[in-house]
Amino acid sequence: MSPFEHVGTPSGDDGSPASEDGPGRGPSVPGGLPVPSGPERGPASSGARPDRTSAVGRLAATVERLRSEVQAAHAAADGRALIELAKGIMVERLRCGPAQATRQLAELAEKAAVSQLELAVDIINQAARDRVAEIAGDFLHRTRTEPAGTGPADAACATVGVRLRTAESAALAAGDAQAVADSLLQHALSPLGATAVAIWTAGSDTSLTLAGHAGFPADEAVRWRYVPPGVVTVARQALTERDTVQFASLSETGIPSIGRTHHPHGGRVALPAGTGGRIHGVLEICWQQPLPPQPPVIMRQIEALAELCAHALETAPASYGHGGDALGGD
Q: Half-sphere exposure of 262 toward its Cβ, with a 13 Å CA cutoff?
């Protein structure tokens, strides 16, 4: 809005309101002569707004495009890391060279009509037999609908395995909790309908420091960078109870938490992130809409993601947080 708009209406010498003599004419004076009006600046000032607005819009579009390109590059790198890991397993199992393992992987993927990434994840799961492999197998067991082994259940299982392995690969390669949060939301949580995630590191005094976040506005993250001891939040409740807490809607609980102003009716899941009996922090996941009770197979996926967060918080705790020291809690 131009600073020349909304200027008080001049009045005559007797204090009466100025007359309206039509467009382009100034107010009347006691002698009845119109006072010449100044140049109309409204159109000029309003004409400058579209230029500024369009420039800001172009800048925002450029930033969004670059962010998408960076995310795509990271996803491609994470996928290549999994393929290379699978090649290493094949080198050890088949006692062959890297070149032969590369050819074998490509040929097997073509014969099975799956991508090399999906086959690589299957090879890793068979070799690792860890929690992620168990989740993928359990998901296949629960959702299998066709006995031929080529139906939607197998495709869904491959998708779950790829998502979890990709998130795991990115989290292990990440240098800080912020990168871990970005990876979890992109690879593992968005497919579950989640819109944001927060990784909290727990202090020895039960304080919480926001170590990483994704999906929340920057100003919201700044406001929630530190939660003092004794303040009840969703993450604090998970930390205190040392167990998973789930809320169908934050508005029904009255408990404050990061992002509540933007998604007051959204669901939340928070669970401790710990290893070896020690809790290092809390993983908090946000949905935009109310969250119905989640099946056990989904909760197991979320628990596996909390383990990845614990690993990140355990290996490099000094680099986390926007304020105060991040200390591991008991």
A: 15
Ramachandran category for residue 210: left, alpha or beta (phi over 0 → left; psi -120 to 50 → alpha)? beta
pTM passes above 0.90: no
Query: Which token pair is 145?
Result: 């609908």
CA–CA dist 138, 141 (Å, integer): 5
* The total number of residues written for the chain in this structure: 330
How do the domains of the chain map onto residue ranges?
Answer: 73-173, 176-330
pLDDT per position as a tens digit, 208-258: 999 999 999 999 999 999 999 989 999 999 999 999 999 999 988 889 999
* Domain 176-330 in CATH 3.30.450.40: yes
**Distance in angstroms (rounded) separating the CA atoms of residues 237 and 257:** 11
Residue 15 is encoded by which pair of tokens?
A: 């204090």
- C-alpha 236/C-alpha 110 separation (Å) is 49
- The residue type at 51: D
